[in-house]
Every structure is written in C-alpha cells, then in structure tokens.
Please model this.
Amino acid sequence: MASHPIRIFFLGIINFGILAYALRRLIGPAANQFFFARRSRIRRQMLNSVMNLRKARARASQCRADYDSLPKEMAARRAAILAQCREECEAIDAEAARRAEYMIESAGRQAEEEKAKAARRMRAKLISRAFEIARQKLGKEAGRDSMHRYLDEGLKAMSDFRMET
Model:
C-alpha cells in the first residue's frame, strides 16, 4: 500500500501536465493576446501619464512665472492708472480755473455795468435835484444867465462827486 500514494502522486502530476498542455494549446493564443493587449494598454496609459505630467509641470511653471510677474504687472498698471488720473485731475483743475477766471471776469463786467448804471442813475438824480434847487433859488424871476451859472456849478459839483467815487 505504500506504493499506492506515490503512484497517485505521479498520476496526479501527469494528469496536471496533460491538462496544462491542453489548456496551453487551446487557450494559449487567446491568453497571450490578452496579456499582450493588457501590457500595451498599461504602456499607453504610462505614456499618457508621462505626457500629462510634462504638460502639468509646464503649466505649473507658466503659472508660477505669471504669479511671480503679477506684482510687477500690477505696479505697472497702477502707475498707468495713476498717470491717467493725474492727467484727468489736471484737466479738471485747468477747466475749473478757466471757469473761475471767466466767472470773475463776468462778475467784474457785471459790476462795471452796475456801477455805470448806478452812476447814470445818480447823475440823473443829481441833475434833477440840481434843477430843483436851481428853480427854488432862482424862482420865476431869475434870468437865463443865472440859471446857466447855477447849472454849471451843479454839474461841477456832480463831476467832483464822480471823481470821489
């Protein structure tokens, strides 16, 4: 009986060998194709991963460069905006100064016109008053010469008054 377990062992090995040979013969080409396709798929995925990694590193370095240049770019933009603001402010100041000068000149002209109007009104009032005073002093009996003399004195007083203002 001792030979019996060894015999079973050898027959099992032979049986396994026959089964392995049959499987290799029948399934071998399909298995080889499966494993080859799997290897090539893994290889393609690795190549794609390497390419994606290179692209990501290039993009990261570009982003890093953009990030590093951002303060300089912001400073340049800020300087440009400040220059533009200064130009606009200077233009606004110049326009305001021009308008203020125009308003001052206009107010001066209006004041001169009002002064002239007031002087004309004052002259008319003074002449009217001078005539009233002359009529009162002269009355109906005074002659033409006295009237002219009083009129000349009144006009002289008026011109003296005008010189004082």
User: Anything to note?
Assistant: The radius of gyration is 60 Å. DSSP finds two helices and no strands in the chain. The chain has one domain: 12-164.
